């Protein structure tokens, strides 16, 4: 809004002029309140994320003043209408899974894709109370950490923008790995000869809730 000391007279107001980008004819409307900071144009025929050129002028009882410089604005976006495809999930450890997907087809005329939302829940939990993490729009995978071991986790992915979120993908699942063996080898014994060292130890037997021993370091 223009400060009162710059209005230079009574009957002050604004002239809002706008036109679809690439056209030549301005659509104009008058806003009579000097304190108004915005104008909303409603038309059901406006397509999502359509560019418009806009300029705002001023007037009072003596006549019209100058217009602002022309600015390009966009109509509101619509939320994505398709779900990501090719969703897969891989267990990386006892507490980490990685979810991957294919980027959804996207045109700039549909708006700006902000990113993807990944929902996940475990076998004993309810889908409605699932946790959610977000990935940026150019990412097609995300790692989810801090999970419980040896437990099935279900995941689904959807895209979102400033208007909202689209539909979820099909649900996929993976089971986190068991925890590593918790016990170290016992009775470690060194035998030293002239040219070599022989090391012996008792083998470790993994507990039922632990992953199998595949070797020693």
Give me the CATH architecture of the largest domain, please.
Sandwich
Major sheet size, sense and barrel closure: 5 strands, antiparallel
> Which residue ranges are poorly predicted, with pLDDT under 50 across at least 5 consecutive positions?
none
Compressed to H and E, one letter per element, the order equals EEEEEEEEEEEEEEE
Helix content: under 10%
- How much of the sequence is in beta strands? 35-45%
Roughly how many Å is the radius of gyration?
A: 32 Å
CATH class (first level) name of the largest domain: Mainly Beta
Specify the overall morphology. Answer: elongated
Written overview of the protein:
This protein is mainly beta and 217 residues long. The protein folds into three domains: 4-74, Immunoglobulin-like (Sandwich); 85-176, Immunoglobulins (Immunoglobulin-like); 181-216, Immunoglobulins (Immunoglobulin-like). Helices cover 0% and strands 42% of the residues. Strands 1, 2, 3, 4 and 5 form a five-stranded antiparallel β-sheet that branches. A hairpin with a 2-residue loop joins strand 11 (152-161) and strand 12 (164-165). The protein is elongated, with a radius of gyration of 32 Å. The chain starts with 12 loop residues before the first strand and ends in a 15-residue tail after the last strand. The model has no long low-confidence stretch (mean pLDDT 91).
What's this entry about, in short?
It is built from no helices and 15 strands. The protein has strands at residues 13-20, 27-31, 51-60, 63-67, 71-74, 85-91, 97-102, 115-122, 131-136, 141-144, 152-161, 164-165, 172-175, 186-192, 197-202.
